[in-house]
Amino acid sequence: MGWNSWNCLRHDEVTAQAILDAASAMAENGMRDVGYNTVVIDDHWQQGRDRVGRLVAHRERFPDGIEAVTDAIHDLGMRVGIYSVPGSTTCGQFYDSYPADDLGSLGRERLDAQTFASWNIDFLKYDWCRAHLNDGIDVRAAYELMSSELHDTGRDIVLSISEYGIWKPWEWAYGVANMWRTTDDLKPTWWSLASTIVQQYPISQFSRPGGWNDPDMLQVGNGSLTTSEVRTHLSAWAITNAPLMAGNDPRQQHPDVSLMLNPDMVAIDQDWGGTASKVYGYVGDNPIFAKPMSTGGTALAILNLHDRVFRADLRPHLPAEYLTTYREAWTGAMFDEHDFGAVELAPHDSHLLRPIA
Ligand code: GLA
Question: How many other CB atoms are there within 10 angstroms of residue 332's CB atom?
């Protein structure tokens, strides 16, 4: 769990001060204390490389370097992440005309891993950005190389890889990376959210401790998502044990951001009950996800991905052991067999159900 700068800070907005202000806001607004404690500096932090080829942070925006930022964030009891790519070219250089040269880690994997470790970095987001086309490199070999270089630094650095699910990392990245993107960039729109959720159905079972499916950073508080859609966003991430990397601007208040602090949602997301979630079944095309909880029982998420109200008696569709008593995460109310008999969800809304032990 944590926060990543990409969905709210780009180009000149990526400054030491903005990152520190975001971290301080998270310490004050409750995010850190419920678990959002890794602060990731995404792309656009770089100046270039020095004479020996070491990466250098942008000199004006990070006047004291990255290490000063990591020290200050560690003092807040939080961890720090940074961004790089295995090829020669970052996504910022390729897609956003980011004005710098020679930023990718290609050929400098050991030096970059050592540099990040020397800055006391705790997490590396290692993106892809067309490295197979730009540089002709192999995805799996590239990620294995950085994984082993990070390991050799002796520092415990979480590796988050991001090849957008193109090469099915859920089939091979366990033991290489700690989390892998499963899909393209999540945009703050219903269309992007719904299609990302649908793409998780067949692969949710591959997530497990030490290697998690990552359907991308949260878009809570961003763009055009309604409160119902945010509930569906968080319900889907929680039931699939997805990393919860906030993408809002923590320096500003948005009413939906409080949903990220929901204790039942966070508890379901962070709990490992022995197997990953699966779509238990569909009612009118809408998925019912189920996952066991280590505390007993099964958590359920009933998602209404349609543009119309979803009304159903779910009792004939669910096994008897699911028809027990839960707390509905979003209302805080009890939810029992009677409620399963008369489910009613507004368009794009969801129930997230935590079993009561
Ligand atoms: C890609 C990634 C994003 C972000 C940008 C940075 O698009 O998927 O999450 O890291 O690159 O340029």
Answer: 10
CA distances from 243 to 5, 209, 274, 339 (A): 15, 11, 17, 30
pLDDT tens-digit readout, 52-91: 999 999 999 999 999 999 999 999 999 999 999 999 999 9
- Tens digit of each residue's pLDDT (9 = 90 or more) over 278-297: 999 999 999 999 999 999 99
- H helices of the chain, in order, are 16-28, 31-34, 65-75, 91-95, 109-118, 131-134, 139-153, 190-200, 227-239, 263-270, 337-340
Whole-model pTM over 0.70:
yes
Q: How many CB atoms lie within 10 A of CB 87?
A: 23
Measuring CA to CA, how many Å separate 313 from each of 236, 341, 350?
Answer: 21, 4, 15
Dihedral angle sign, alpha carbons of residues 4, 29, 244, 284 = negative
Among residues 21, 102, 135, 185, which one is catalytic? 185
Contact 161, 179 (CB under 8 A): yes
Probe target for ligand 1 pocket from 5, 10, 13, 91, with the most ligand atoms within 8 Å of CB = 91
**Residue 185 is a catalytic residue:** yes
Q: Taking Cα atoms as reference points, which of 235, 282, 241 lies closest to residue 260?
A: 235
Q: Which long-range contacts (CB under 8 A, 24 or more apart) does 52-61 make?
A: 53/108, 53/111, 54/111, 54/115, 55/84, 55/103, 55/112, 55/115, 58/14, 61/12, 61/14, 61/15, 61/16
Is residue 337 a contact partner of residue 315, using CB atoms and an 8 Å limit?
A: yes
Q: What is the spatial distance between Cα 176 and Cα 118, in angstroms, rounded to a whole number? A: 22
CB 127 within 8 A of CB 134: no
70 vs 25: CA distance, rounded Å? 16
